[in-house]
Amino acid sequence: MPGTDTRPSAYPSECARATAPGESRFRIDAPIRPARNARVIALDDRATAIARRVADRPWAKAAFYTCQAASDIGPLPEQIVLHRLDATPALLGEVLTGTDVVVVLATEDTGAHYAAAVGRLCGAGGITTAGVVLGEDFEADDAVAALRPYARVLLLSADESDVTELLTALRV
Amino acid sequence: MLRKDINELLTQTGPGTPMGDLFRQYWIPALLAEELPENDAPPVRVKLLSERMIAFRDSEGRYGLVDEFCAHRGASLWFGRNESAGLRCPYHGWKYDYTGQCIEVPSEADNSSFCQNVKLTSYPLVKVGDLLWTYMGDPAKQPGLPEFEFAQVPPEQTYTSKRWQQCNWLQAFEGGIDSSHVTFLHSGGLKTDPLFKGAKGNEYNMKDTKPFFEVADSEGGLFVGARRNAEEGSYYWRITPWVMPAFTMVPPRGDHPVHGHFWVPIDDENCWTYSFDYHPVRALTDTERQAMIDGHGVHSRNIPGTYRPAANMDNDYLIDREAQKRGETYSGVAGIAMQDASLQESMGPIVDRSKERLVPADSGIIKARQKLRKAALALRDEGVTPPGVDPAHHRVRSAAVVLPQAESFLDSCRDAVTVMPGVPQSSV
């Protein structure tokens, strides 16, 4: 039968042969392009400082934004004004255009209203949302509560390097 | 995604490697107590962390775990005669006690002190629960014995099995903190497995196939909470604890026994999966125990006389495509344990994590890798004792609860995830 390999095999099964030492050499070795067009949004001042440190690393497609003052909140979530790290403003609706994952950073409760707005807008737009809440004894309980309905993942941590680890693992 | 050098750091556990040194800070399962069922039972080969050893139980009931090979000519002590409080190499009669100390060299003169200078490398071997545990690190830093609840309850309340898994320990372990695969790979088992079926929580599992996750540090490792919609205004939470380096528990279902795993590296391409079930407050029923022996729940049906699963890579895991079509199994492989093992082994002996495409739902795995890497490097560079060594860190439970939507699982479940003798598990 064409295509049937009738050669004798040292292995008793398909799975044993496929996982034998050396078989990994034949895996297709295509380069992996960055998969995520990520937005990282810092909700408060300490989160902004962390975002600045993380942004110094080379990222393929990650863009970083901050939420600077409650007065920036407009009547619609899309009109919330964020700021790039160079302080230029950007509307949340525009920031989220074309992205498929948003990572929200929080260290305290002051950004809870932003968290809810970002979460709602991402939820409506089919954008996967992850929250990294940094601090001891969960100082950002309100931010966590605001994010919980929307964030596919909430990482509660005292370790700032979790932000870098998460973004690296997501290939952004 | 992990860089190749970090992948190697986390997957290599032989002597002198950072992860090997990390594992050598802990008591780890070496074998089941049933493998040495009586004094002077036949010795058993044990390979752990890429070291080959022999375990034996001497005439006085003392357990020994020593270098597999006789110091004389390198013959395997698996052939040893276990007699008169020692293990004697049948080649030339050299004899060793349970500490590896040579106590007889027949070819030497009577009263010779030669054998006093011959000692095989040995490690302590201690029975706690159904397991024999060893500590392969610096004797001066030997921690207190394990206090995991499954090994502390009376014998009639607990059952442990083990199976050989043909892949690196890390890819097996990562399955234990990866709650999102349950909805797919194990969906058949929720309906039919005698150790899972019938729980109210299963309905939440099956109705909401897109769980949300929260990952938080614990003293010994992590808690991973998986959240699904329950009744209006509430969430169903399944909370998985991980105690470093390789202990995880599965959240319970109804009044079924609670289960979990301990993954132990044999070498870099093989590991032992120890799987346990226990009930905190009652004896296992005969039906439950028989189901575990038969390979249901998290256990496997093994080839008689071995710890190799009957469904294994040499028979393509007895995959049944018709059962898959009928909806009895999701992948065609029967049994929770082998559903996991078949896919983990299919990745190859050591998966190349530089090729992964992780998603936010994998945050538990991402965080666990980070904690392992940091702990291994802190130990190597600064001598820092890693989390999970302190027996107090072992006193955790998994839990399954329904909470109001506004409540944090961490705040609401502190008691539920803490071992309280005499108190039942928190389960739905």
Automatic annotation (TrEMBL), chain A:
Q: What is this protein called?
A: 3-methyl-2-oxobutanoate hydroxymethyltransferase
- Organism this protein belongs to: Streptomyces sulfonofaciens
User: According to the entry, what is the taxonomic lineage of the organism?
Assistant: Bacteria, Bacillati, Actinomycetota, Actinomycetes, Kitasatosporales
UniProtKB/TrEMBL annotation, chain B:
User: Start and end of every Rieske domain?
Assistant: 27-134
Renumbered to this chain, the signal peptide range is none
CDD domains hit by this protein: RHO_alpha_C_DMO-like (cd08878), Rieske_RO_Alpha_PhDO_like (cd03479)
Tell me the keywords, alphabetical order.
Answer: 2Fe-2S, Iron, Iron-sulfur, Metal-binding, Oxidoreductase
Q: Which domain of life is it from?
A: Bacteria
GO molecular function: any one? Answer: 2 iron, 2 sulfur cluster binding
Presence of the UniProt keyword S-adenosyl-L-methionine in the record: no
A Pfam match is LigXa_C
Q: What is this protein called?
A: Ring-hydroxylating oxygenase subunit alpha
